[in-house]
Q: What sequence folds into this?
């Protein structure tokens, strides 16, 4: 683990511990600097009312220069939210996790972005190519070259 | 000696980036692509968009530009590439790579050699080459300074002020301080022994810039500073920040978030002006455009209060920056 990576994660963790997480986001496990787990709930009216999902972050020694590997946990009975940008294996197609990652972002900033991605969802459905992608997907979502179509 | 553009010649183009040309970076030279064909713009996402995967295992669906990007990505992932930044090499090594290509580039390279720019320090073509080249040349300038103590003290004072710029632009201390420390401690070690009791030498500077953690940290701080300078002086840059592929005018904040604060995104005129201004630097960009029939345009950026201060000199070929070395250095 690179020293910059460990220092930065230690600072992020201290901030989480002193200021708490935003509403709907809960830190579940951050016992080392390689993998953190959070739960995410969407507050207020949404397609995901009353549901909680577990989000996993994996960090390499180049964090925060390189992005964390982020996905929803789909083991131990947990499932990924049904969403047009979330595959059933938990992988997420979001530009900020790939080509538009910046060290300006933090673990909490990613959680908040994904929370609002769920909040703004109009229709619960999987990506059109879900089955094909999940059949061949690498273990680490960072190894997928997602193609982002601007649908804003 | 510094060449300035001949006033009788047409003005130097202000938009340096030429996206329709294949970057002439040696990392990509083996990749054949018809450079005359019009490349359709890449459909890049906006800062907040969250988008869908659309089967890019079907190569026939990809535009040439996407294929090119993917090719670069694959090479970066799988093939040992050139170091992040290399030792100084004779200009003839660069020249040999153009011998079967454009005569105009050869003429420009020969002109540089004839005018004393006989060496080049090459950087990896990873989209960070401008920041890495500039960072290296900046620190190296203190090593070769005749008044090291004064040069280092001035630089540290300017750098210390830049943290204010970065903070005011909204980047948290937690985010920038480790990157900032890497740059500052390297410059300090020009005159003050580091924690191992060592002063910086050319060899140690090269080793530091070849180590990903140090090198990328410095690139990242320079990116933050560039973005902050653009955001805080937005009235100077609004209307000039364009999407690198579509050339459409962008708003300053989206531009900074997508193309400046992100690793691997090339710098253009706006970023060069902003960074040289934030660091109070004089910089010359020797522009090999493959068009001039004689001579080479040197694009001047003058931001040192001492207008005559010796500029750092970078070599620009469409899509790539290296450090140009004069034989008097």
A:
């Amino acid at each position: 683990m690179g020293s910059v990576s460990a220092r930065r994660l230690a600072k992020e963790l201290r901030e989480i511990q002193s200021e708490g997480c935003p509403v709907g986001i809960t830190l579940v496990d951050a016992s080392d600097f390689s993998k953190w787990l959070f739960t995410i709930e969407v507050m207020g009216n949404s397609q995901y009312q009353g549901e909680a999902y577990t989000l996993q972050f994996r960090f390499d020694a180049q964090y925060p220069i390189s992005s964390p590997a982020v996905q929803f946990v789909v083991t131990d009975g947990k499932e990924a939210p049904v969403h047009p940008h979330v595959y059933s294996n938990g992988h997420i197609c979001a530009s900020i996790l790939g080509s538009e990652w910046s060290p300006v972002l933090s673990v909490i900033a990613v959680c908040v972005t994904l929370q609002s991605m769920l909040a703004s969802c109009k229709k619960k459905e999987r990506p059109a190519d879900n089955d094909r992608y999940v059949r061949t997907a690498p273990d680490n979502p960072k190894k997928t070259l997602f193609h982002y179509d601007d649908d804003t | 000696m510094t060449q300035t553009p001949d006033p009788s010649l047409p003005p130097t183009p202000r938009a340096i980036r030429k996206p329709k040309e294949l970057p002439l970076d040696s990392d990509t030279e083996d990749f054949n692509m018809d450079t005359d064909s019009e490349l359709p713009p890449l459909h890049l996402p906006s800062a907040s968009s969250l988008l869908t995967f659309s089967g890019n295992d079907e190569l026939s669906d990809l535009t040439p530009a996407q294929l090119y990007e993917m090719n670069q990505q694959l090479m970066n992932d799988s093939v040992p590439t050139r170091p992040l930044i290399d030792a100084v090499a004779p200009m003839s090594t660069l020249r040999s790579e153009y011998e079967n290509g454009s005569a105009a580039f050869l003429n420009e390279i020969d002109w540089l050699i004839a005018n004393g720019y006989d060496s080049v320090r090459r950087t990896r073509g990873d989209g960070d080459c401008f920041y890495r080249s500039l960072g290296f040349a900046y620190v190296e300038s203190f090593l070769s300074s005749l008044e090291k103590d004064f040069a280092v003290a001035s630089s540290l004072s300017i750098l210390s002020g830049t943290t204010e710029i970065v903070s005011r632009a909204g980047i948290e201390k937690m985010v920038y301080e480790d990157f900032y420390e890497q740059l500052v401690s390297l410059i300090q070690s020009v005159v003050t022994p580091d924690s191992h009791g060592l002063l910086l030498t050319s060899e140690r500077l090269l080793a530091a810039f070849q180590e990903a953690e140090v090198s990328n940290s410095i690139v990242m701080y320079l990116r933050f500073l560039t973005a902050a300078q653009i955001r805080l002086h937005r009235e100077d840059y609004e209307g000039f920040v364009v999407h690198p592929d579509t050339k459409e005018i962008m708003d300053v904040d989206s531009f900074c978030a997508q193309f400046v604060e992100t690793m691997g995104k090339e710098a253009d005129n706006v970023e060069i002006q902003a960074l040289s201004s934030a660091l109070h630097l004089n910089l010359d960009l020797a522009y090999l455009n493959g068009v001039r029939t004689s001579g080479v345009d040197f694009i001047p950026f003058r931001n040192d209060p001492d207008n005559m201060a010796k500029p750092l000199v970078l070599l620009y070929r469409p899509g790539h920056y290296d450090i140009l070395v004069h034989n008097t250095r």
